[in-house]
Specification:
The protein is α+β, with helices and mostly antiparallel strands. It contains 15 helices and 28 strands. Among the domains are: about 120 residues, Immunoglobulins (Immunoglobulin-like), CATH 2.60.40; about 70 residues, Immunoglobulin-like, CATH 2.60.40.1180. A hairpin with a 4-residue loop joins strand 23 and strand 24. InterPro entries: Alpha_amylase (IPR006046), GH (IPR017853), GH13_cat_dom (IPR006047), Glyco_hydro_13_lg-like_dom (IPR004185), Ig-like_fold (IPR013783), O16G_dom_2 (IPR045857). Belongs to the glycosyl hydrolase 13 family.
Length: about 575
């Protein structure tokens, strides 16, 4: 038995309160080495009297990666405290006792030493990682306001272009605004959307608005506060939530704070608001690039017109927290998406969480982080992150064909095992965004492949997001190419209908897809697999074929599918899938 592969860490993603009186426990062992794991557990104050160390509960092998298996169990405790350890048995019949103080031979006199056990000393409700209950059932729609719909011609920029008349660039404008979003709420409602994620709407000179000048004003090219208030109210009337994009890592160079630094240098009252090595701030432009070199101050990605804020400064903290609470208090927004969240200090995000949840306790806090994010997801900062690391595995298999099915599954499992299940249930799952090439472009125009990949993403744990226009067949390369104008004249109606049906399926079985167990069966050589999701009395099986040969699937009550036909069992061609209820 490989003792080095055995791992558990109390009060972490390996042992945490899931509900008020329900604890989830995980154990890591070497892959395909362990036959069974039993949990020994009980109240440490009744250890001697009840001798509960003589009893075991079987743990379930819930996840597998290329190197490890992970076992899980849910337990309750009468007195809201728990001591526990693991009995691990391999396929040769060898058993060990894994405790807080190490691994021992499986002998009863070892089990009877109460100080050896892992502990959850008390189920502290105040420390439990809590999520907004509405998020797991939400289907998001990301809108880049400048390119969605022009609902008010009177606020167009001077250099506005005819809608969709040119390819998107980093500097051109087409007149999209908030009135345009209001005008299309019926469209979003018909599609089935229940959450709108808006890229920045605050005053800024660019078309993307990530170079904020005034956080307290809606950009005049997008409308005004009254229009935004109307948008939130009308969205709420339709059962839709609204999430805004906050850029708290940096300011735009046109902001009065940065301009004061340019004017007064070290004597500026805002000199300590930024990370400036020497005065005056300076840089050397790189011809043909937004970036610069020889910067003597910190910025976002070497972009000189985005100077980085010093969030250690109490004045900066007060400034940003006032903004964050203002838009909740005054406009009743439902979430903040936090740009470049990993480059802001943890201390600030802890203060941020407390401030915004005091305004609205079920507000959704979403960080933009593209890598493993455990430090931000301990329960005192964010609820979730944009789940690029998870969905990259999906794209690598379906779209890039660079990994096998098993590698995709292992990669997805690794990401989920980094976090508590609460976080996985509200993770923001997406296959494209304003920062990536569009999904149809990644699929090389193959709409069958797009539908297969999108469906697979929609049946995973987490809250799915559609980038505006994916349902209409929009294409576009990397930023700025992905930020194309929405096609309202000739959208792909078949793709729209498909997306609408997919969203309806997700909503119909939201508990199964959000909370259900996962069981995989796959064949790397044939490029076929099935995923079984089960929750309470409901079981959903999804079978996919990304290989060249015809395959067969079980025949339950068909819910959804493409590229299949019935002949006793379902027969799936390439990019075919069928989702069934058993």
């Amino acid at each position: 038995m490989n003792h080095a592969a055995i791992y558990h860490r109390p009060e972490s993603e390996f042992a945490y309160l899931y509900k008020k009186d329900l604890m989830r426990i995980r154990l890591q062992t070497a892959r395909n080495e362990i036959k069974s794991v039993g949990l020994i557990s009980g109240d440490f104050y009744t250890f001697g009297a009840e001798k509960w160390y003589k009893k075991q509960q079987a743990m379930r092998k819930a996840y597998t990666t290329d190197t490890h298996d992970y076992w899980e169990i849910e337990v309750t405790a009468t007195h809201r405290r728990l001591a526990y350890a693991f009995c691990i048995t391999d396929f040769q019949g060898n058993s060990v006792f894994y405790t807080d103080q190490g691994i021992f031979e499986h002998e009863e006199y070892r089990l009877s030493h109460d100080n050896l056990y892992f502990r959850m000393p008390y189920f502290q409700e105040i420390d439990r990682f809590k999520i907004p209950d509405w998020v797991p059932q939400t289907v998001w729609y990301q809108i880049f306001p400048e390119r969605f719909y022009n609902g008010d011609l009177s606020n167009d920029p001077e250099a506005v272009l005819a809608w969709g008349s040119e390819a998107p660039t980093r500097g051109n404008f087409f007149g999209g605004d908030l009135q345009g979003v209001i005008d299309k709420l019926d469209y979003l409602e018909d599609l089935g959307i229940t959450g709108i994620y808006l890229c920045p709407i605050f005053t800024a000179p660019s078309n993307h608005k990530y170079d904020t000048v005034d956080y307290y004003e809606v950009d005049p090219h997008f409308g005004n506060k009254q229009v935004f208030r109307e948008l939130v109210e009308k969205a709420h009337e339709r059962g839709m939530r609204v999430m805004l994009d906050a850029v708290f890592n940096h300011l735009g160079a046109s902001s009065h704070q940065w301009q004061d630094v340019i004017l007064h240098g070290a004597d500026s009252s805002y000199a300590d608001w930024f990370h400036i090595d020497s005065f005056p701030p300076r840089y050397t432009p790189i011809p043909g690039s937004e970036q610069a070199e020889n910067l003597n101050y910190d910025t976002f990605s070497f972009v000189p017109n985005m100077p980085k804020l010093n969030t250690e400064n109490p004045e900066v903290q007060e400034f940003l927290l006032a903004i964050a609470t203002y838009w909740i208090r005054e406009f009743d927004i439902d979430g903040w998406r936090l740009d470049v969240a990993n480059e802001v200090d943890h201390h600030f995000w802890k203060e941020f969480r407390q401030a915004v949840l005091q305004q609205k306790e079920d507000l959704y806090i979403l960080g933009e982080i593209w890598h493993s994010s455990q430090r931000w997801l301990e329960g005192d900062e964010f609820h979730a992150v944009m789940n690029y690391a998870f969905t990259d595995s999906i794209k690598a298999f379906f779209v890039e064909e660079s990994i096998t099915i098993s590698q995709m599954i292992f990669g997805m499992n690794r990401q989920q095992l980094l976090y508590r299940d609460q976080t996985n249930e509200v993770s923001f799952n997406l296959l494209d965004s304003h920062d990536t090439p569009r999904l149809l472009t990644l699929c090389r125009g193959n709409k069958e492949l797009l539908r297969s990949a999108l469906t697979f993403m929609f049946i995973q744990k987490g809250t799915p997001c559609i980038f505006y226009g994916t349902e209409a067949g929009l294409e576009g390369e990397m930023d700025p190419g992905c930020r194309v104008c929405m096609d309202w004249e000739d959208p792909d109606q078949e793709l729209y209908t498909f997306t609408k049906q997919l969203i309806a399926l997700r909503k119909q079985f939201s508990e199964v897809f959000s909370l259900g167990t996962m069981e995989w069966h796959y064949d790397d050589d044939k490029k076929t697999f099935s995923l079984t999701r089960q929750y309470k009395e409901k079981t959903i099986v999804a079978t996919f074929n990304e290989g060249e040969k015809l395959i067969f699937a079980k025949q339950g009550r068909r819910l959804f599918g493409q590229n299949y036909h019935e002949n006793g069992n379902y027969q799936l061609n390439k990019h075919g899938f069928v989702i069934e209820e058993l």
